[in-house]
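Re: [help] complex structure
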Amino acid sequence: MREYKVVVLGAGGVGKSALSVQFSQGIFLDSYDPTIEDSYCKQVDVDGRPCMLEILDTAGVEQFTAMRELYIKNGQGFLLVYSVTDRSSLLELSKLYEQVCRIKGTTTVPIVLAGNKCDLAHARTVPFQEAKHLAHKWGTNSFYETSARTGVHVNDIFVDVVRQIQRRDSASSSSNASTHSASRVPTPTEKHRHTHSAASTIGGYETDRRWSSKRSSGKHSEAGLSTTYSKHKQKKKKAGGLCVIL
Ligand SMILES: Nc1nc2c(ncn2[C@@H]2O[C@H](COP(=O)(O)OP(=O)(O)O)[C@@H](O)[C@H]2O)c(=O)[nH]1
Ligand SMILES: [Mg+2]
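Output below.
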C-alpha cells in the first residue's frame, strides 16, 4: 500500500497534536505538552484507494531547527497549522512556508493551511478572509478552519494533502516512482520520538497505531506518554477487538 508522509508544522499550542490525535484516534487531547513529538499511522481510503498516512506531529521547533530541516526533507506533504485565536501563530507560518519551499526547492509543495480552534468563536482574532488571502498568496485553495475539539474539517485537511501528493506524483510519475516505496525508512530523528500503531476501525476508517517509548525531551515526557497510553488501554477494553502493539 502506498505510504504518505505528512508533517504537521506550526507554533506551539495551536493544536498540532490535538489534530493528529483526533484524526488518527478519534479522540480530543485536552492536555498540552509542547515537548511531545509523535508519529501516527492511519490507513484511510481516499477516492476509493487505500492509503497509509504516516503523520509526524512535530514539537519544539524553536529548539531543534536542524531536526525540522530533516522532517521537511523527508516529508511529502505538510499541514501548516495556526490557531484562529492567535494572530502571531499565523504570521509565523510564513517563515515555515518559506523554509519548506527552500528545502524542497520548489513552491509547488503539497501544503494545506489549517486554522485550528474554530470552535472558540468568542476568542477569534484571525478572520477567515485574512488566512484565505495568505493561502492564495501561496498559490493554493487548500485552506480550512478546523477544530480538533469538534472534529470539524479534521479529516478534510489530511485527505486534501494526500490528494495533492497523488496529483504531484501522477504529474511526475516516472521520475518519482522509485522515491515512494511502501516500506518505511527510519529517519535519524526517529530515535527522538515514539510511534503509535494499532489496528482498529474508527468512524469508518481503518486505523493503525504503534507505541514505543522514546520521547524527544523534557521532564513531562513520561507523564505525557502514560496519559496517552492509558487512554488507549481504556479504549482497547471498550473496543474489545483493538490490537495494541507495544
Ligand atoms: N477549543 C479547542 N482547543 C484546542 C483545539 N486544538 C487544541 N486545543 C487545545 O490547545 C492546547 C494545545 O494543543 P496541542 O495540540 O497540544 O498544541 P501543539 O503544541 O500545537 O501540539 C491543548 O490544551 C488542546 O486541548 C481546538 O480545536 N479547540
Ligand atoms: Mg504538540
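Residues 33 and 224 are 7 Å apart (CA to CA).
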